[in-house]
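Collaboration report, partner site 2.

Our partner group contributed sequences for two proteins of shared interest, and the home lab folded both. The records are reproduced in the order in which they were received, starting with the first partner submission.
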Amino acid sequence: MQENLHFDISTSVIKQLGEQLISDEVTAIMELIKNSYDAEADWVKIDIDVNNCLTNDFHFNDVKGYILLEDNGEGMSLSDISSRWLVISFSAKRDQKESGTYNEGKRIPLGDKGLGRLSTQRIGKQIEIVTGVADEDIYHSLAYNWDDFDGTRKLSDVKVVYRTFSKKVGLKGTKVAITSLNNPTVWKGEAFDVFRSELSKMIFPVKENRPFNVRLSVAGQKVDLDSLNEQLRKQAIGEYKLRYDGKKLNIEILLKLNKLRGNDSSFYEKTIISDNGKAFFEFLTDKQRNKREFLDKVQTEYLGQLNNGYFFKYKTEYHFEKIAKNSVISGDILILANPGIFDGEILEYDIRGDVDLNEEEYFDSVGEYKRLVKNQVGVRIFRDGFGIKPYGLNNNDWLQLSTGQTSGASFYGLRPGNIIGYISISNKENLSLTEKTDREGFVESPYSQNFFLITKKFISEINLVLERAKRALNTYKSVLADSKGTFQGSTTKAIEGVNAVAEQSKNTLPIIEELQTDLSTISKEVKQNIDSPLFNNQNTTSADLKVVSFLHKAENTLMQVEKAIKSSAELDNNADFIAPQINLLKRQLHDFSELAGLGLTAEAWSHEILNMLERISSQTNDIEKRLKMLKNIDSVIYIYIEYVKSFVQNLRIQVNHFSPSLRYNREKKQEIKLSEFIDESKAFFVSKFTKINGEIKVSISEDFKVKANKGKLTQVFDNILLNSEYWLRKKQLSNNSFLPAIFIEVDSHLIRIWDNGSGIDETIAESIFQPFTTSKPVGEGRGLGLYIVEQIIESMGGEITLLHKRNTENRRYIFQINLESAKVNP
């Protein structure tokens, strides 16, 4: 009796599995489509009909409304049905995926849970499978009802109707017929439009590159699934591509001129589009004229209207080691978790206001064009051509584009509402990116974490290029306005120009007055001669009269010139009034820049922290006094009190270190001896460096003093030294025997700072002082530190450069600060 004991399972468990694992009708249909893909089908047809019944060939043919899926895959034999389809959660695909082996059609299966068959219960109650393999002469039919899985019976007691049909040898494939639809309204009207749109998003958007064909029809009428076809692609204003080859991330950016249109359409039409952007391209790529925002990785050849009208092409690459942060154990060593080869593309569209369609014959209307874009909006992840939820679906912003939209770093960056894109992975190359059982995203792992870091690096690079292009355009507008004499560009030069005109006018005024007197005298003499009785009026010619008229006009003109020159001579008074107003504006803008470097939050934080520290210190002292009045107090309490006092003191030192940087201290300038200042900065960083066995070495060849604000100078050193500390820590993680060191050298008016790390990445060496330039992984740095350093040093009249000297890794590594203008002469 005991030998017959065994487990069984209630049918309700199966029903619960299907309900929990399959969230909606789109997911259910996609699971069935994936089954066709795994069966090596070339195509799958989906026919939806809510008003008619299936033909008499099917077992359930007496209920209105059905969904029929048909493919030309390998099909199943009776043995396959009994040993695979009817065994819940059995999956022959699981071993194939784990071993990376291919089917005969060179596909690694997408499924591996053995639960795809349960998806049918999300759609309807009555299910029939009709299937056959090529070397048999029969089709096998299997019909059952999900209502029988009601929990009142065991799984083995569920009724299954089996039949066979004859067929020709060589025919193969599978039909899945679903009737007694759970929610017929999903398949008609506006609800069906939503379903069709969502289904299209789950299928690879580039129709030409889909792994196999998906055909949809309603009551026999073909329904087009939206696709990112070539005509829609031509309307993109930006094309951004990534290719990760397993070692390096390659990024290519193509930008059209109308991406730069912005709100100033007048300037765009008159200045930019007039020469197809050629003059602006030359400015954009000129390091001397466009110092702040120049793009050094732009293809040197001007594209103009070539390549679908793209304006320029930008290319760059990043090594995997510079992006990834997460590791796994392989054997006895720790290695970075490599997610495998993948690629992707993002297309950006302008769907604001009126759209100028150059390909009108491909779209019924502007409205049709906008509908196609909106239906495809989002950056989705596809595995072998099939979408992975929730990425890019239902407004899922997994790339956090809307978050960046509110930050200063991406004011001109990508917007989630007007881009269509995909990341394409495969089972062959990306088996380490495992999907969750409910098909709702990747299982979190070092591999998926590094995958997301790579894609976010791609986005940050796009935003960086867009930022610089748009900011460069703003600078270009100012340069053009300045060259035309309008009040933009250098205000100092404008004031100087006004004063020069006033001075020249003052010098010219006496000459004009003298000329006016002479001309008046000559005019009177000529007129008197003509009017004289001695002059024969008969001899008066038209030329004589013209001379008189000319002299009269010349007198009037000189009078007007005299008025204008007198007004010009008074311009210096206006300039004297305007100059201080402009200087005030400059100071206010300067203050704003400084506050951006440190932030209002830091001021409030410092103030509150100091208040709290004072309160804690006062209360601790009070408690200590009271305890001394008592007897038999445990010594541990006194030790704790000393610890608190020490902690408060150390924290106060840290806060006071930053206090000179605060705005209420910034206006104060003082004479600072560099050797003493560096000793203070060194003391602050010593505690950080001792933790990594690091050392700061200072060399003073010729000490000097500068007149500057101590807070600003502190920011300069902090940013440079913190950068060094970050990269030295990174290097030490990969080499335990490495001993970090930072070197500071003072020589006359020069300060040189370097470390014994890897040096500056060659890809950013030329643009290291530009905002948002960094080789740190996404989330660990925004690339503002050295930009702020340069701004501060320039405000002191100094200059910072990255010297061309190279280290043992053939990289530039020495920062040199020239403070000659701020130097205090002995």
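Second partner submission, folded after the first:
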Amino acid sequence: MQILMDEWNIKPPSWVSADPCDGWEGIKCTNSRITALVLADMGLKGQLPTDIELNLSFNKGLTGQLRASIGKLTKLVHLNLVGCSFFGPIPDAIGSLTKLSYLSLKNNSFSGPIPPSIGNLANLTFIDLSDNKLQGSIPVSNGTTLGLDKLLKARHFHFGNNQLSGPIPPRLFSSTMAMIHLIFDRNNLSGSIPSTVGLVQTLLAVHLSNNMLTGPMPNLTGMNSLNYVDLSNNTFAVSEVPTWFSTLKLLTTLMMENTGLQGEVPRALFGFGNLETVVLRNNLLSGLLDVGNSSNQLQLIDLQRNFITELAPSKEGSNYTLILVNNPICEGSQTNNYCIVSPTNAPNEMSPTLSNCTAVACPSGQVSSPNCKCASPYRGTLVFIFVSFSNLGNFSYYRELEKAIMKSCQSFNLPVDSVSLGRPSWGSSFHLELVIEVFPSGDQVRFNQTGASAIASVLSNQTLEGRPIFFGPYSPAGSNKGLIIGASIGGSVLLLLIVLVGFYALYQKRRGDSPSRGSILMTGVSNVSGPQLKGARLFSFEELKKYTNGFSEENDIGSGGYGQVYRGTLPMGQTVAIKRAKRESMQGAPEFKAEVELLSRVHHKNLVSLVGFCLDQGEQMLVYEYVQNGDLLDSLLGKSGIRLDWMRRLKVALGAAKGLAYLHEHANPTIIHRDIKSNNILLDKDLEAKVADFGLSKSMADSGKDYVTTQVKGTMGYLDPEYYMTQQLTEKSDVYSFGVVMLELITARRPIERGKYIVRVVQSAMDKSKDLYNLHEVLDPAIDLENDQLKGLEMFVNLAMLCVDELRAKRPSMGAVVKEIENIIQISATNWNAGANSAATSASYEDVSREVSKDLYSVLDYSVAVQGRR
């Protein structure tokens, strides 16, 4: 234990006696022998020892590789390393832990294949290897080797968000399995879903979304226990709606977005008494939609971007939300509720108490518990991979989960008075996020470190007794250590942060307009260091309020999903644009930090410059150079009053391309923008293009690869399909988005307009044997075909279609795009009069055009909605 104290740099106050079994916090002993350490969420740092039983979840400082000697822990029954920083392969020796019943290595950086030896763990009831970087195929036994098909007792198969590839082996499934969760979402799996999955009659949830699965739609007939099915974003063969839709009588959630479904939705589907959520967006469903016999439980039917033409009358008293945006039935009229995307029904509060007590006013740093006692709770966030309901405002669901968590705390004799869940919201990929508060019992007003660690340990165990089935697996994240340790510590730390930032702001104000360097503290943000600044100034709220005349209406120059943008004037006369976040759409601390740090260190004439930022009085604001002529989208739509002729459009494309090329090829480390679109390209007084909005940008620093594995974010219509399917982000993802912007430049059409994807529209209209590739009907009418002399248009189209090639390897680099646009501009500016010069130029044009288009392939007809900033 002394070695561990030195290795992990910890020594809780109770670790003072010579005998660790004499009241040491987190130590469990049997007959004076240490049998387990419960040290979850203790801020441990160092590496993993190999001769003790451990629950070390949520210690980000624990790193290194799992050593093969872990196989010596033959008495280990529970191994939980959730949320640490281990990397490298999972050792094959883990198959020696034959008594293991619970294995969770979730949310680390493990790579390499899944060890086939795991099939030797016949006592496993729970296995979770999700949110890592595991590669290769799913291992199954073949007579000489082991595989996952041998885990007959395992109820939970959680392998989501890795890089697994190849087909799902038919041998993986058998009728003797106890599996209830089959989760392989967000991988690179291909081939058909084997019919043998139907042998596992115990399955409650099938989650195979966001892979590259093909072939026919699987037949799930007879799987009568299923209540959750998500097969979204796979490339199944286009087929009629499967008949099994209408046979799964316990189904609560059906999600099959972007799966090639066509034909009418069967009326019988909506009659099941348990059905709550149906998401069939972005398919080919058509004809009449009849929801007349819907159950009283139905909450959401989302059929955006289909071809529904008729709607039968709904049953009287129905209370579900129907979304038919971008269907023919909504064209020409937006007056119907179903043609408008409704706001979320999530309340921004903790769940109201059901007790008979009256909430009391509490001292600073404490809140009233469900039993109306003032205390500093353990607070964190639970992120659920799936839930089988849509009404976030129905607190009865959360009550059942509160009871399950409370029961688990009681089974471990933890000093817990009550549990409260609330503030539900939809995070990325339709994941539910819930704030949890756990209150101490008795006269305690705060948990000590032992209690907090024990609670973290309970929450890391995803097999809570009595847990309601409509909640899927979750990840505890973002625990508030200040409140865990207590109000005295947490309050003083928060006060210290506020005081420091207050002094820093005063110091900055006294410095006037001089730039700040170094780092600052971000108030109200836990576990996030301040931005590393190079030349960006920290403004106070009162300063920016003064510079915008109180954020007056006359200084309001625009708005977006992020918030309002105001024009301001600094004391030295510089005009700036101040982007002020709305409360409900403020970036997370990492995203805000990323944008500030990135903008403060990149400098190029085709990138919007950051002047400063504000983190004061609960506000998030970014102060940019003022770009006079707004965004490219407004100009293309005729809202800015600026006419963009052909040559101006080429120069706009060149400027934006140069800005991106700088990020990809000259910034150190390389930066991927991740949200290139026409309204993130601004035009200055000379119509010079400047790339803006770096809130989603990713750095390639320390990736060690030519891609970054990351959660998919972006904007519908601009998203690189290969990035979406693999979660592997590269510079070529920006190239794809830029190719869509190029098509916007020649058509003035949005990427997805009335259900039609711009890439497919141009591709379908193209005929290279005809003048201007036969694109007259899709070109922007504002382009004067007579006077603009669209020389180089065909080359521009060829280049755009290369940029949006479905295979990233076929797309050019942004440096190559810059050179080609420069060449097109030179050709377009050439005097095309008759004569020798004309013939020579024409020949040169043909040569270049052939060079650009020789590798041009058909472009994927791809359109998908991605949760992210628009």
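Feedback sent to the partner group on the second submission included the following. The radius of gyration is 29 Å. The chain has a mean pLDDT of 78.
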